[in-house]
Design brief:
Blueprint: E1 4-8, E2 17-23, E3 28-36, E4 42-43, E5 46-49, H1 54-74, E6 80-87, H2 95-108, E7 113-114, H3 123-130, H4 151-170, E8 178-182, H5 186-197, E9 201-205, H6 209-214, E10 221-223, H7 226-229, E11 236-239, H8 248-253, E12 258-259, H9 271-278, E13 282-283, H10 286-289, H11 292-301, H12 306-313, H13 316-330, H14 334-348
Parallel strand pairs: 4-6, 4-7, 5-6, 8-9, 8-11, 9-10, 11-12, 12-13
Antiparallel strand pairs: 1-2, 2-3, 3-6
The structure holds 1,4-dihydronicotinamide adenine dinucleotide.
Residues 117-120, 150-151, 154, 182-188, 205-208, 211, 226, 240-243, 262-264, 290, 293 line the site of 1,4-dihydronicotinamide adenine dinucleotide.
């Protein structure tokens, strides 16, 4: 069983590539998008989701891979940016075989792309990938070492970013604030737990209401219907579902004064950064706040310890504050400041201190 593997010929930038992967026997279908190899092999998770169309899947992969380039650069990691996006088959399929076939496609890139979990994939899926390639992380981990499910680390980085941004933008501690969390998946669930422990009041919603309801076992966590979340009386909005949560309609109706969450590509388009600025809503760029997961994945891949992961995640809030401070001084969007900083690092080809 070999995944049919081809490189589509639309190259976007010097090192950017889209590799289409397909294996009819297992139902594997999708792409591996490599955005940049400037700082090292392209590292980024594997998304397993049902897309309406192939162009929609390709567009998501390209955008997610670009986000990984910026995220890895700003986190000081020796990696470029890439992402795998796989179409979830309509009918029944053998999950382990499908991810093993994906592993073959990863192996065929000879280390240019390193995979891990993202939306819809788990440690078990990455173990199946591992059966065919060593270019994967997010596997089971040994005591004291980095590795395993990255989402608790992602949530920790978001919590620390949120604390710093709340003090900067709202002059308040999380225990005085209400946080609306969109998405009760891996990241959202861990974040709700950390927020509840920090004394925040949490309002959570998910397209699967049972997932949100399950979190109400925690103190100070309430579940609301999806359409009530954005208008909920909250100080902070934490998008932790799929991308594009911040579009013209949601930004216009948003009650929160600060946005800080885990989802990749939270802005539906670049104009939303200005809409948020106009409305006086502080935006913590997604790929700065949610870097904890890839920091853990990178450390696992490099054979580092959990203590090193924690130390690196502890540096995220100072990046958040540097970006918010420069944005305030220059009266521009934090998204623009972060993109400029990341582009400078990549252009110089030099890694930032991790
Ligand atoms: P997940 O698949 O475990 O959870 C996603 C959740 O969002 C699911 O519960 C799903 O039902 C829900 N959802 C989907 N559409 C929704 C909508 N319109 N409104 C409300 N809920 C909706 O995925 P995970 O791992 O929690 O990732 C969440 C986000 O964080 C994604 O954007 C991912 O790319 C990003 N991220 C995840 C990292 C990780 O460590 N897992 C690392 C960095 C970013």
């Amino acid at each position: 069983m070999v995944a049919t593997f081809s490189t589509v010929d639309h190259r976007m930038r010097a090192t950017s590539q889209i590799h289409r992967i397909e294996d009819k026997a297992t139902g594997l279908e999708g792409v591996i998008a490599i955005d940049s190899l400037t700082l090292g092999p392209a590292a980024g998770g594997c998304r397993f989701w049902r897309y309406e169309s192939t162009p929609a899947l390709h567009a998501d992969a390209v955008r997610l891979a670009r986000g990984m380039t910026f995220k890895n650069a700003m986190a000081g990691l020796p990696f470029g940016g890439g992402k795998a996006v796989l179409q979830m088959p309509e009918g029944p399929f053998d999950r382990a075989k499908l991810f093993a076939a994906f592993g073959e496609a990863v192996q065929a890139l000879k280390g240019d792309y390193i995979s891990a979990e993202d939306v819809g994939t788990s440690v078990a899926d990455m173990e199946a990938v591992r059966s065919r390639t060593a270019f994967v992380a997010g596997l089971g981990r040994d005591e004291g070492m980095a590795g395993g499910d990255p989402s608790p680390w992602t949530a920790l980085g978001i919590l620390q970013s949120m604390k710093a941004a709340a003090r900067f933008a709202l002059g308040a501690d999380l225990s005085q604030l209400r946080v609306a969390v969109q998405g009760a998946g891996n990241v959202g669930t861990h974040l709700c737990g950390l927020l509840a422990r920090a004394g925040a009041h949490v309002i959570v919603a998910d397209i699967d209401p049972d997932r949100a309801r399950a979190l109400t076992r925690l103190d100070r966590v309430e579940a609301v219907p999806l359409d009530a979340l954005l208008q909920a009386d909250a100080d902070i909005f934490a998008p932790c579902a799929l991308g594009g949560a911040l579009d013209a309609e949601s930004v216009a109706g948003l009650k929160a004064r600060l946005v800080c969450g885990g989802a990749n590509n939270q802005l539906a388009n670049d104009a939303m950064a200005l809409e948020l600025l106009d409305r006086g809503i502080t935006y913590v760029p997604d790929y700065i706040a949610n870097a904890g997961g890839i920091i853990n994945v990178a450390a696992e891949y490099l054979g580092e310890t959990a203590a090193q992961v924690e130390e690196r995640i502890g540096k995220i809030p100072s990046r958040v504050l540097a970006i918010l401070t420069r944005a305030r001084q220059d009266c521009c969007s934090p998204a623009l400041v972060a993109d400029e900083m990341a582009a400078e690092i990549i252009a110089s080809g030099r890694r930032m201190a991790a």
